[in-house]
Design goal:
rod-shaped; about 210 residues; mainly alpha; 4 helices
């Protein structure tokens, strides 16, 4: 091979390698851009879910406080009525023999009214102590679940943001391993996001 031929061959190889390298770089940048887009989409979903969950926590705390306060007020009134009824029952047992039939009848009617009030305070739909207690415990269970969900959303949101930053840096620096790291961070964030929705596993780090 002549020197001129060798020089021409080197030039041809160089021209072939340059487009190949440019094509690989474009492919890498497209992959990074696609990853960033997916991470941004999941970040938006997680942000909305986390915000709704926080709102539910605040609302549940308020409802629990109000419900137990209403329950306590009803319980106090019911207890007061029970004590009043028991006092008159005791009076009738100890002094009733000296009462006239009309007096005994009036007291018995009043005792029946008090008993009806006692039952109403306990059994009234939605406002009786039985329903109020059940509602408060349901709200507490809902609050406990929301509190378990909350750190999953918070950590997922942070990891999605970190993944986006790492993927962006990989484009600027052309360091491909950074894109892999960003993808792995994104996978962990996706798992935490799903765990926030469904509580698939209990994570000790998030336990209160």
């Amino acid at each position: 091979m002549q020197a001129a031929d060798a020089a021409d061959t080197v030039k041809e190889v160089a021209l072939e390698e340059e487009p190949r390298e440019a094509t690989g770089l474009r492919k890498f940048e497209n992959q990074a851009a696609l990853l960033i887009a997916f991470l941004a989409m999941f970040l938006a979903i997680t942000s909305v879910a986390g915000s709704d969950n926080l709102q539910q926590i605040l609302q549940s705390e308020t409802e629990i406080t109000n419900t137990w306060a209403f329950f306590q007020a009803k319980t106090i009134r019911r207890t007061s009525t029970i004590l009043q009824r028991e006092n008159w029952e005791l009076m009738m047992a100890t002094q009733g023999s000296a009462w006239t039939p009309e007096q005994r009848q009036q007291v018995e009617q009043q005792l029946a009214r008090w008993q009806a009030e006692i039952d109403r305070y306990r059994d009234e739909p939605e406002e009786g102590t039985a329903d109020l207690s059940r509602k408060a415990r349901e709200l507490e269970a809902r609050l406990a679940r929301a509190l378990r969900q909350d750190p999953n959303f918070d950590f997922a949101e942070g990891l999605f943001q970190i993944g986006i930053v790492i993927a962006s840096v990989s484009i600027l620096t052309k360091i491909r391993p950074l894109l892999v790291i960003a993808g792995l961070v994104g996978l962990v964030a996706i798992f935490l996001m799903l765990n926030g929705f469904f509580l698939l596993v209990e994570i000790p780090l998030f336990a209160n």
